[in-house]
Q: What sequence folds into this?
């Protein structure tokens, strides 16, 4: 996601990250990844629930998850100690100042991520319309 | 198809890395945001 920060900002938008750990976990995460983007935590998961993001042990241990984990390992990613709720899944939303959501992606299991090209296309179209 | 964010989410309080409270809806008041919910830090 770090590599998408500049393309997102070039459209006039900002990347905002939400996680479900504790504030000090966010600080370590930001330092480790050298993130310059806003990052927040929601330990009670109220925002995750409001958006009906997937949650549950069987969402986490699907067979395809092992394939994603293997691919990530081969690409050099290493799983560190998990913080927060390990059964919570993620999601990505483009939100406009008027509250409209022209793009959303609900992750079904670990390793299921949106293609950044999809939300960048939405942002680029919006930027063209406002010029 | 576009849909509208709920007041519940816009008014939700989240914490920054220093533990300070923020109203999440303020994040998109002045510009679009890509709001990414990650599974966990790890």
A:
């Amino acid at each position: 996601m770090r590599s998408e920060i500049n393309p997102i900002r070039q459209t006039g938008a900002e990347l905002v990250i939400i996680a479900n750990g504790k504030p000090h976990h966010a600080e370590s995460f930001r330092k480790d990844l050298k993130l310059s983007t806003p990052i927040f935590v929601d330990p009670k998961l109220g925002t995750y629930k409001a958006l009906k993001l997937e949650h549950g042990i069987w969402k986490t241990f699907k067979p395809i998850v092992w394939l994603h984990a293997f691919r990530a390992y081969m690409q050099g990613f290493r799983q560190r100690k998990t913080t927060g709720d390990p059964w919570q899944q993620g999601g990505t939303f483009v939100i406009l100042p008027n509250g409209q959501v022209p793009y959303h992606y609900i992750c079904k299991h670990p390793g299921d991520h949106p293609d950044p090209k999809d939300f960048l296309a939405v942002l680029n179209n919006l930027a063209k319309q406002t010029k | 198809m576009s849909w509208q964010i709920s007041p519940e989410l816009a008014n939700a309080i989240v914490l920054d890395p220093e533990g300070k409270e923020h109203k999440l809806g303020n994040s998109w008041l002045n510009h679009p945001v890509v709001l990414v919910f990650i599974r966990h830090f790890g």
Remarks:
- Chain B has a mean pLDDT of 91.
- Helices of chain B lie at 7-10.
- The longest helix of chain B spans residues 7-10.
